[in-house]
């Protein structure tokens, strides 16, 4: 049902996979460094892209690897953002690493709750459960305005310097480096997880839950665990967002953000961590360029892009690229 | 007691409005298996055409409704041929991406052509009167919508369950290859089904405009509502959709009367509860 | 890292000295999405001001750079503001339709040496977040307080308050309650309804059952207001003699063609009506209508933007085009001028605009269109909401 490129990580021996992972990390690092020097004035945007990339990676874990359809994934991201922000604004926990930890924990808890609810149904009803969750979360945050600032947003988050050394500055340099390092760490961890027996079990469930159950695997338990991991990743993204922008609004718990994350994931290609990263980068970069070029009518152009991707790259940007090269590789070995 | 009746009337009317606007989506999602997030966009196009016809050209309401349905179908035909045909049978996520793209485009174009202001569709005087039910008054328009909803429900049920085309349609959906082998022209069946769905969307957009007014953002603003009621009912089932609309309409209305502060909670908690009890929707079939 | 920052800061300061420059003003607002109409009004107000007053001050050419934040999204607003400052090198930040968007950008101002001119966002607290914030719009407290007095003096003693459950709605409820109870009236019930409400019939039933003589309402403009006002008529509340009070956001001019007859006779208090009778306003409306294309779309954010540009021009004049936020803000403290809405002053202490608030009633013009007819003036109103913030 979901497009993916499972063959990529199944083929080849362990050594080749490690090499490929190393190349992947190096590419992210190279892009990160290039971004720092080529776009020194766009670091705020690049940091935002990094935070959203974490959300999309997290979505990929449940959608791409487990086949769970959700339009409410921002609940996990928002939990992380509000967790970190409330820790800083109300409890004086201003150390960025501690804020990150709070965000990860809050995200995991949100992941557990969403997972238990969303996994009750399949297909469309599942989508609807996820929509209900994001609306409830949004409304709850709006109600608890004493803690969250309600629709005015929670401001007054002043993170300390990272390790007491690097202050968060106007140009967003510290926040950017912080974000890129976080992204690389998460990426390496996720590569390990998706390739582990646990990750393989998840893929198996996506392809044939009945068989996994017959083999004695716990479908529900496995998926809930993946949801918690996904929550931790999204929570990290939310915390990064809170730390770098120093304000958290209800938009981080919105249906819109959830739907956008889904669009980015499908754009890049589901079922591959690279697809998630490429989709996020492509969508947000494109959106920034067109909305700056024409702030009044850019939505039409973004819509046309989405249609074009479905027509010409149905497996997503990364998925289509990967299968193109695979195809060529098979033709002339 | 009077209050209970009064809420009952409001709940029933609101449920029927939801039904008229969403039922077209039930056709695309349930019978054609397309997650059509652009449903609201087609309803909006219908609303714009009707508004233009009735307000700017001064045509009669009934004519405006007809024009809206015909015009929207006319616009939808090339969209179906060029875009939708590519996503039949594709994964849900691909369909989501395509139909969101279409929605964005239509919003942008509507904003450019008609501007960002609200557009109304002037109803004839007969529909503007408040009508007394004895214990309270209700607007004639609401009664009109209730009548429309009933007519649509019966007509659609007859069309799908009792006509030869309905049989072909269900056959094509259940097994396209087999249906084609038996001589059913599945392409035509799909195109006609799509036209029916779009026509219903346009009709719903026009009739429901009193409650959900027409503006460019319409297509996204109510997308979630449409998706929720159709899925809760069980996509493709007309009695299911009707039951879901009436039930959710009642919960929403009662919640908003008793505890408006928590209205949103009521609605979505009810959605979770229903799906928890009926994981395939109220009238969902086992796959 | 520190050295780099100092070097860049020095470069920025040096850059500011050169003359006959292009001075950039970054405007953040909702130019697409559900509030595109309000963003369009920002642009119309700015265009109108520049059409009437030229696009240069003291030899420096003014350039406006627009950035789109479609709905309240503080993270996006902050990222774009930061980009405007560091990448585009804007000397002034302006616009800001939503409170959280403005709040998110205020921490940048001091470090960036950039003043912010808020052209709409209406929560009292914004001006207290940074000494470099000046506001040329209004606050919800400012426009909602006089209507309480109007209601009480008109003989309505029991009112039910119905507001949308979000920041501005809660502000409006508090402002009305404070004013109405101080006058001696009674709020029989205060209801907050979810922002996403399509069917208002149950709310109308609730109003009827409360036994109130009047209703105070605050909802976001657009579909929500339309639905509420229609339901108010259809459920027989208007006929039943229940009075309707609201700040003027509800009857903004761009919604009146859709509201139509249903809005007739609604009383609101607000700082600006497109119909305001003055030479200054005639000039403004003519220029802004030309800028926006369709005169029926013209509404209050345009005047906030127009006066915002007036303040920015004064700031540029006072600093001679140099980047000096403190000097620029000092120069407009106490600044008084004749705005299209009437006489206004930037309060020297709060940096918020002091202005007349008008009581208006929706009336039908001879050509069949609807407009807000001003019937009473409350002169020189400050922002009562600031007292609550402090």
From TrEMBL, chain B:
Primary location class: membrane
Compartments reported by the entry: Cell membrane
CDD domains, per database record: TM_PBP1_LivH_like
InterPro entries named among the record's database cross-references: ABC_transp_permease, BCAA_transport_permease
Entry's transmembrane regions: 6-27, 34-53, 59-84, 96-114, 140-160, 188-212, 224-250, 262-279
Molecular functions (GO terms): transmembrane transporter activity
Alphabetically ordered keywords of this record: Amino-acid transport, Cell membrane, Membrane, Transmembrane, Transmembrane helix, Transport
Record flagged with keyword Membrane: yes
Coiled coil: none
GO cellular component terms listed in the entry, alphabetical order: plasma membrane
Listed Pfam families: BPD_transp_2
Tagged with keyword Cell membrane: yes
Entry similarity comment: Belongs to the binding-protein-dependent transport system permease family. LivHM subfamily.
Protein name per Swiss-Prot or TrEMBL: Branched-chain amino acid transport system permease protein
Organism of this sequence: Rhizobium giardinii
Automatic annotation (TrEMBL), chain C:
Any one GO biological process: amino acid transport
InterPro entries in UniProt: BCAA_transport (IPR051010), Leu-bd (IPR028081), Leu_Ile_Val-bd (IPR000709), Peripla_BP_I (IPR028082)
Assigned keywords, A-Z: Amino-acid transport, Signal, Transport
Residue ranges annotated for the Leucine-binding protein domain, each copy included: 23-363
Transport is among the record's keywords: yes
SUPFAM superfamilies assigned: Periplasmic binding protein-like I
Record Pfam families: Peripla_BP_6 (PF13458)
Domain of life: Bacteria
Keyword Transport on entry: yes
Region forming the signal peptide: 1-20
Similarity section: Belongs to the leucine-binding protein family.
Name used for this protein in its record: Branched-chain amino acid transport system substrate-binding protein
């Amino acid at each position: 049902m979901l497009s993916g490129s499972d063959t990529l990580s199944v083929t080849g021996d362990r050594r080749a996979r490690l090499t490929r992972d190393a190349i992947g990390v190096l590419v992210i690092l190279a892009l990160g460094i290039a971004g720092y020097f080529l776009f020194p004035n766009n670091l705020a945007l690049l940091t935002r892209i990094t935070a959203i990339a974490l959300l999309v990676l997290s979505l990929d874990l449940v959608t791409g690897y487990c086949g769970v359809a959700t339009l409410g994934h921002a609940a996990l991201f928002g939990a992380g953002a509000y967790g970190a922000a409330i820790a800083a604004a109300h409890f004086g926990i201003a150390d960025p690493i501690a804020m990150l930890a709070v965000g990860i924990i809050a995200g995991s808890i949100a992941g557990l709750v969403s997972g238990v609810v969303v996994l009750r149904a399949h297909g469309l009803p599942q989508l609807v459960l996820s929509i209900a969750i994001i609306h409830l979360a949004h409304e709850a945050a709006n109600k608890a305005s004493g803690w969250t600032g309600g629709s005015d947003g929670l401001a007054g988050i002043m993170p300390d310097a990272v390790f007491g050394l690097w202050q968060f500055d106007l140009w967003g340099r510290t926040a950017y480096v912080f974000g890129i390092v976080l992204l690389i760490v998460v990426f390496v961890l996720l590569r390990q997880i998706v390739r582990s027996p646990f990750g393989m079990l998840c893929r198996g469930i996506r392809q044939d839950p009945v068989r996994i159950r017959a083999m004695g695997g716990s479908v529900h338990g496995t998926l809930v665990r993946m949801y918690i991991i996904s929550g931790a990743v999204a929570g990290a993204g939310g915390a990064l967002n809170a730390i770098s922008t120093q304000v958290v609004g209800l938009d981080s718990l919105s249906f819109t953000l959830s739907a956008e994350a889904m669009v980015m994931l499908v754009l890049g290609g589901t079922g591959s961590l690279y697809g998630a990263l490429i989709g996020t980068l492509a969508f947000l970069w494109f959106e920034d360029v067109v909305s700056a070029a024409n702030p009044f009518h850019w939505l039409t152009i973004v819509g046309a892009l989405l249609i074009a991707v479905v027509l010409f790259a149905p497996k997503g940007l990364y998925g289509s690229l990967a299968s193109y090269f695979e195809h060529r590789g098979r033709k002339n070995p | 007691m009077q209050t209970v009746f009064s809420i009952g009337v409001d709940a029933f009317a609101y449920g029927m409005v939801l039904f008229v606007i969403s039922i077209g989506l039930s056709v695309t999602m349930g019978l054609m298996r397309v997650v059509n997030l652009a449903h609201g966009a087609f309803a909006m196009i219908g609303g714009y055409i009707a508004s233009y016809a009735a307000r700017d050209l001064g045509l009669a309401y009934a004519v405006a409704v007809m024009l809206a349905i015909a015009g929207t179908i006319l616009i939808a035909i090339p969209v179906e041929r060029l875009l939708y045909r590519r996503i039949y049978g594709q994964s849900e996520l691909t369909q989501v991406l395509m139909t969101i793209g279409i929605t964005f485009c239509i919003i942008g174009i509507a904003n450019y052509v008609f501007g960002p202001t609200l557009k109304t569709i002037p109803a004839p005087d007969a529909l503007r009167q408040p009508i007394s039910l004895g214990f309270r008054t209700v607007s004639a328009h609401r009664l009109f919508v209730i009548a429309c909803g009933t007519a649509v429900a019966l007509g659609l049920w007859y069309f799908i369950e009792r006509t030869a085309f309905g049989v072909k349609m269900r056959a094509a959906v259940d097994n396209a290859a087999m249906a084609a082998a038996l001589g059913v022209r599945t392409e035509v069946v799909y195109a006609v089904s799509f036209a029916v769905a779009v026509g219903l969307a346009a009709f719903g957009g026009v009739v429901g405009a009193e409650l959900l007014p027409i503006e460019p953002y319409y297509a996204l603003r109510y997308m979630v509502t449409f998706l929720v009621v159709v899925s809760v009912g069980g996509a493709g089932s007309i009695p299911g959709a009707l039951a879901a609309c009436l039930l959710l309409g009642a919960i929403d209305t009662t919640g908003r009367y008793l505890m408006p502060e928590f209205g949103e909670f009521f609605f979505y908690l009810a959605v979770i509860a229903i799906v928890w009890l009926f994981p395939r929707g109220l009238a969902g079939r086992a796959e | 890292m520190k050295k780099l920052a100092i070097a860049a800061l020095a470069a920025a300061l040096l850059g500011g000295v050169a003359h006959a420059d292009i001075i950039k003003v970054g405007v953040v607002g909702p130019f697409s999405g559900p509030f595109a109409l309000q963003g369009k009004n920002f642009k119309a107000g700015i265009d109108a001001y520049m059409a009437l007053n030229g696009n240069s001050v003291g030899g420096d050419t003014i350039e406006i750079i627009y950035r789109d934040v479609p709905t309240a999204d503080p993270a996006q607003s902050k990222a774009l503001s930061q980009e405007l400052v560091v990448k585009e090198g804007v000397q002034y930040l302006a616009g800001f339709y939503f409170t959280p968007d403005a709040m998110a950008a205020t921490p940048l101002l001091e470090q960036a040496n950039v003043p912010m001119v808020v052209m709409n966002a209406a929560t009292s607290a914004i001006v207290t977040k940074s000494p470099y914030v000046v506001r040329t719009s209004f606050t919800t407290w400012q426009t909602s307080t006089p209507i309480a007095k109007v209601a009480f003096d008109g003989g309505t003693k029991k009112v039910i308050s119905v507001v949308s459950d979000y920041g501005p709605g809660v502000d409006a409820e508090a402002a009305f309650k404070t004013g109405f109870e101080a006058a001696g009236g009674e709020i029989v019930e205060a209801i907050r309804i979810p922002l996403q409400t399509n069917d208002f019939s149950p709310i109308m039933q609730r109003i009827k059952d409360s036994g109130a003589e009047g209703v105070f309402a605050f909802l976001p403009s657009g579909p929500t207001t339309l639905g509420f006002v229609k339901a108010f008529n259809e459920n027989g509340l208007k006929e039943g003699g229940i009075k309707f009070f609201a700040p003027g956001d509800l009857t903004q001019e761009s919604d009146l063609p859709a509201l139509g007859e249903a809005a007739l006779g609604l009383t609101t208090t607000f700082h600006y009506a497109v119909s305001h009778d003055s030479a200054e306003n005639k000039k403004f409306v003519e220029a802004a209508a030309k800028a926006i294309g369709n005169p029926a779309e013209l509404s209050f954010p345009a005047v906030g933007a127009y006066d915002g540009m007036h303040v920015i021009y004064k700031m540029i004049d006072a600093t001679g085009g140099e980047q000096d936020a403190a000097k620029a803000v000092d120069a407009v403290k106490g600044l008084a001028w004749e705005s299209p809405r009437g006489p206004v002053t930037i309060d020297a202490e709060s940096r918020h605009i002091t202005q007349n608030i008008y009581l208006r009633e929706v009336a039908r013009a001879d050509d069949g269109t609807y407009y807000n007819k001003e019937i009473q003036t409350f002169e020189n109103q400050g922002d009562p909401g600031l007292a609550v913030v402090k």
